[in-house]
Amino acid sequence: MRKTGASGLVYSTDSGRMCPTCRLPIADCHCKAASKAAPQGDGVVRVSRETKGRGGKTTTVIRGVTLDAQALAGLGKRLRTACGAGGTAKDGVLEVQGDHCDRVVEWLTKEGWLVKRAGG
Fold this sequence. Notes:
Layout: E1 2-4, E2 8-12, E3 16-17, H1 31-37, E4 45-50, E5 59-63, H2 69-83, E6 87-90, E7 93-97, H3 101-110, E8 115-117
Parallel strand pairs: 4-8
Antiparallel strand pairs: 1-2, 2-3, 4-5, 5-7, 6-7
């Protein structure tokens, strides 16, 4: 086994690379899954309109929803149905095709979220 001074065990001949946080083998480590399981936020959902990187097409972007991936996808589906538009949920961000900011803010407020309009 090889050890370093302050950081502890980094490699074991028995199981290979070790996680520096939980000191379990990388294959058995649950640190990253635990950090992804509980999204962090300030409790405010921000709704903005973006066109950058989308070929000039307008997209309504919703950030700050503190839900896991499955619940976020379900919320996105209900939101897209309410707007009558397509979209996606990826990396903790909901995207709805088109300029639906006012409708999204109104719908999320009715659902009980604290919503702010971001951007111009």
